[in-house]
Design a protein that fits this description.
The complex is a heterodimer.
Chain A (H helix, E strand, L loop, with lengths): L5 H4 L2 E2 L2 E2 L5 H17 L3 H15 L5 E3 L1 H7 L2 E6 L9 H14 L4 E6 L3 H13 L2 E7 H6 L1 H9 L3 E5 L6 H15 L3 E3 L10 H9 L1 H14 L5 E6 L3 H7 L8 E9 L14 H4 L1 E5 L2 E5 L24 H9 L2 E7 H15 L5 H12 L7 E6 L7 H8 L2
Parallel strand pairs in A: 4-14, 5-6, 5-8, 6-7, 9-10, 9-14, 10-13
Antiparallel strand pairs in A: 1-2, 3-4, 11-12
Helix pairs in contact in A: 3-5, 5-6, 5-10, 6-8, 10-12, 11-12, 15-16
Chain B lengths: L2 H4 L5 E7 L8 H11 L3 E5 L10 H12 L4 H10 L6 E4 L2 H7 L1 H10 L2 E5 L9 H9 L3 E3 L1 E2 L5 H10 L4 E4 L13 H9 L6 E4 L5 H9 L4 E4 L1 H8 L3 H23 L1
The chains are: A alpha/beta, B alpha/beta.
Chain lengths: 397, 258
């Protein structure tokens, strides 16, 4: 007899999610899940997190009425300004929460994966601030592409470990962090950066990011006296999208999840020219969860591609896979070109340079304004300073 | 051969190789050579792009094999051609099975003479559908326990496993190590039931193999060191190592009886 049924072993979202990991990682994940369940109800934990959010991260972030963009799209557009969170992106919402959990569990070391470096930077920030030894796994290819973020992490005392296995990008950095954790869990917390992977990460990361949607809900009520017709967010693994969507799941609000179309659907079995796992992917297991993934017919994971490194991931969080299947969330696709248009438009119209990831959400809104209704919130998940070199190179191609 | 028959002659030496490394065509011959050198069970790994339980040696082998064109169709062809008297066991990641379809995969195992499956990223709690497919096709689904598996869970996994119980000798990933840890000995002593116990992860020398048998294991599993020898083209050394490990395992059994 199994002492744990699949139901209480790992939360599932329909058939998605689960805990598909080597036996060595089952206990660390079970311990993490128990600690998180205990802490999330604790007043002390909540007030400590609240204080860090307010005094360190700079929350609440504004919900800004974008007058010029509204005129262009012929509807009322509000921007949720996660680009103003300390560190320059929503990533800190998650790292603050998880680092506090890790501290309560008595861990002394944080490990994390990073693609573009934003999650690595957010982990380095909490590592320095809360006193952890911090090591960040980063693909060799990404280290070359994101030298500034590597230096930022190092300035804050984190060590960046180059990943030379596999495709030497984000997915391999996650593999390497999981391998490290399988030997180091006694004193180390694995601080996964998105609402994907094995239980409890999808639920825990969603909860920590839900602060975005909770604030936005209150702010739009104050400003407009009603809920929006739609919310637009970009999706890589899905943490900023789940963060803003989660508090609106029961409302009549259209939830539009914009994935990276990259150069378009993959043309052969070896590469996927996009990061659109909801749009172009099929069911499979990656990094511990059953979800939608980009894979070949045999189950080998494909390398994804997007001009936005933060959307360059061949999987997606299991809850989004579920919500897309039920129709509650509508997956949409914006390719590189559309994202560039969003990037330029928001910079020029509002004086806000968005991250290339967030520019996918803006670009989609420009492309399909009729899908937005009369009142829309676009989640600006990060600021675009990190992307200037990429944009300059793209424009010169 | 079914795994349970092999264990009638325990202690055993189990040898792992990565299918398709260096080429898909080389695999059947390697399997036959391993049998001749004394391997009692042969684990044939199906390479995956994202092998999270494996260290650098097996990761590199998987990458080479995929680059050389290994895929699941060729895997089963190679397994079918590699006719040996000892049990052949599949080892690979769950997504490769899921992509083919659980029933089809188990059926293809049976058709190609594979009588057991080891899936390192599939805990028993997630395994019910594959278990069903395995039972239908007379294939053993082998589960793993680790040094940090708590007692109640250890008992559950031992009850669920079929063929043998795979004891992961240490936390972390696969790869050759220099010593046998107290953790490993404790784990062997901790397994409550009577199903055969095979110890793997980190075993690379005849001495280590003998040590886990003396500590109470029914089989020693050796992988990365063999994969490394194949990578360097040292097939005669591989055969020699397997012969020596087999002798060490059998010798340790005699020492235990005295």
């Amino acid at each position: 007899m199994k002492c744990l049924t699949p139901e209480n072993f790992a939360i599932k979202f329909g058939r998605y999610g689960g805990l598909f990991v080597p036996e060595t990682l089952v206990q660390p994940l079970t311990d993490l899940s128990a600690a998180y369940e205990r802490l999330k109800g604790s007043d002390q934990f909540k007030s400590e997190l609240e204080s860090l959010r307010k005094n360190f991260a700079g929350r609440p972030t504004p919900l800004y009425f974008a007058r010029n963009l509204s005129r262009k799209l012929d509807c009322k557009v509000y921007l949720k300004r996660e680009d103003l969170v300390h560190g320059g992106a929503h990533k800190l919402n998650n790292t603050l929460g998880q680092a506090l959990v890790a501290k309560n569990m008595g861990k002394t070391r944080l490990i994390a994966e990073t693609g573009a470096g934003q999650h690595g930077v957010a982990t380095a920030i909490v590592g320095a601030n809360l006193g952890f030894e911090t090591q960040v796994y980063m693909g060799e290819v990404d280290i070359e592409r994101q030298k500034m973020n590597v230096y930022r992490m190092e300035l804050m005392g984190a060590e960046v470990i180059p990943v030379r296995s596999g495709s030497r990008t984000l997915k391999d950095a996650i593999n390497e962090a999981m391998r490290d954790w399988a030997a180091s869990f006694d004193h180390t917390h694995y601080l996964l950066g998105t609402a994907a992977g094995a239980h409890p990460f999808p639920s825990m990361v969603r909860d920590f990011q839900s602060v975005i949607g909770i604030e936005a809900r209150r702010q739009i009520q104050e400003a407009e006296g009603r809920l929006p017709d739609s919310i637009v967010a970009c999706v890589g693994g899905g943490s900023n999208a789940m963060g803003i969507f989660a508090p609106f799941l029961k409302d009549e609000v259209r939830l539009l999840a914009v994935e990276a179309g990259g150069r378009g659907p993959g043309k052969n079995d070896k590469t996927a020219d996009s990061g659109a796992s909801l749009g172009y992917g099929t069911d499979g297991v990656l990094h511990g969860a059953l979800t939608k993934i980009l894979q070949d017919p045999y189950g080998q994971i494909l390398e994804s591609y997007s001009v936005a490194a933060g959307l360059d991931y061949p999987g997606v969080g299991p809850e989004l896979a579920f919500l897309a299947e039920t129709g509650r969330v509508q997956p949409k696709i914006a390719d590189d070109h559309t994202a560039m248009q969003g990037f330029r438009a928001l910079s020029r119209l509002e004086g806000i340079i968005p991250a290339l990831e967030s520019a996918h959400a803006v670009g989609y809104a420009l492309q399909e304004p009729e899908a937005l209704g009369d009142l829309v919130i676009i989640n600006i998940s990060g600021r675009g300073d990190k992307d200037l070199t990429t944009v300059m190179e793209y424009e010169n191609l | 051969m079914r795994i349970s028959e092999a264990f009638l002659a325990s202690p055993l030496l189990i040898v792992y190789i990565c299918a398709g490394d260096p080429t898909p065509e080389a695999t059947p011959d390697l399997v036959r050579r391993l049998e001749k050198a004394g391997a009692d069970i042969i684990e044939i790994g199906l390479p995956h792009s994202d092998p999270i339980a494996d260290g650098p040696t097996i990761q590199a082998a998987a990458q080479r094999a995929i680059a050389a064109g290994m895929n699941t169709d060729k895997y089963f062809q190679a397994a079918a051609v590699a006719k040996v008297a000892v049990p052949k066991v599949f080892m690979g990641y769950y997504n490769m099975i899921y992509a083919r379809g659980l029933d089809k995969f188990a059926r293809d195992c049976a058709k190609s003479g594979i009588t057991g499956m080891i899936v390192p990223d599939l805990p028993p709690e997630e395994a019910a559908p594959l278990q069903e497919a395995c039972i239908k096709n007379a294939v053993d689904l082998i589960f793993l326990v680790a040094p940090n598996t708590p007692p109640a869970r250890l008992k559950m996994i031992e009850e669920e496993t079929s063929g043998f119980l795979y004891l992961v000798a240490r936390t972390g990933v696969t790869g050759a190590r220099s010593e046998v840890l107290q953790d490993t000995r404790d784990l062997i002593a901790r397994v409550p039931g009577r199903k055969p116990k095979a110890v793997g992860f980190g075993i690379s020398t005849p001495e280590q193999a003998a040590e886990v048998i003396r500590a109470g294991a029914d089989a020693a599993i050796v992988g990365s060191v063999c994969v490394d020898l194949i990578a360097r083209g040292k097939i005669e050394e591989l055969e020699q190592l397997v012969r020596e490990m087999k002798a060490a395992v059998k010798g340790a059994a005699k020492a235990k009886l005295q």
